[in-house]
Amino acid sequence: MLNSKTKKIFIGIAALLMLIIAGLGYYECVYTKTPQYTMKILQKAVADHDVNTVYQHVDVDKILYKFIDKTIQKEFINNPQVKNSEYSEAAKALADIALPMMISNAKQDVNNLIAGNAVKEKSILGPIYDNKDSLSIEINQTKKISDNNAEIQITVTNNKRYTSIPLLLKLNRLPDKTWKIFDIDGTEKLSWL
Question: What region, left, alpha or beta, does residue 155 occupy, with left being phi > 0 and alpha being psi -120 to 50 degrees?
């Protein structure tokens, strides 16, 4: 028969074990399926120069297409000097030809950036590469839109230049219950960094 002091110790140890098991259960069943956990996966992948894991959790092609197409439209096609000239149709045709080449070059730069290699001086990712050691990311807010869609509001800060930009990451759930970023709102502000 156990005395009362031994019973209390036994109950305390059992309660502690239950808390540890509950914490591990929460981590495995809940936290590892959150967008925040996917952000931790991405941070580790970038730090480890793991290009494959980044591509597993970021739709780089779609994000680059949107960013470069938007830039071409703003700076070239919808530029009043081009838009209101006899060359507007030629500019559109050239843009259609240039877009896939620009995306291909930018994708190679993304691969180099993740792998820890230098990017081309004139790359659209040049400002990120030049400031990579002074950039920090803070997750401000996560909003679950549905079981399969979420948004994460982040702030990217250049700690040397004291500039910050907000970005809105849009994510879809993957079959393994982690998440994939398929769109980023605010990429046009990256040059501010």
Answer: beta
Q: Which position has the token pair 């990311």?
A: 137
Beta bridge partners of 184: 169
As a whole number of angstroms, the distance between CA 149 and CA 180 comes to 10
Rounded Cα gap, residues 103 and 110, in angstroms: 10
How many helices (H) and strands (E) would you count in the chain? Answer: 7, 4
The phi, psi pair for 136, rounded to 5°, reads -135, 155
Per-residue pLDDT of the chain (193 residues; tens, 9 = 90+): 567 777 777 676 766 767 766 665 555 656 778 898 999 999 999 899 999 999 999 999 999 999 889 888 888 788 888 888 888 888 888 888 989 999 998 899 889 888 888 877 777 777 777 777 788 888 888 887 888 999 999 998 988 888 899 999 999 999 999 999 999 999 888 777 7
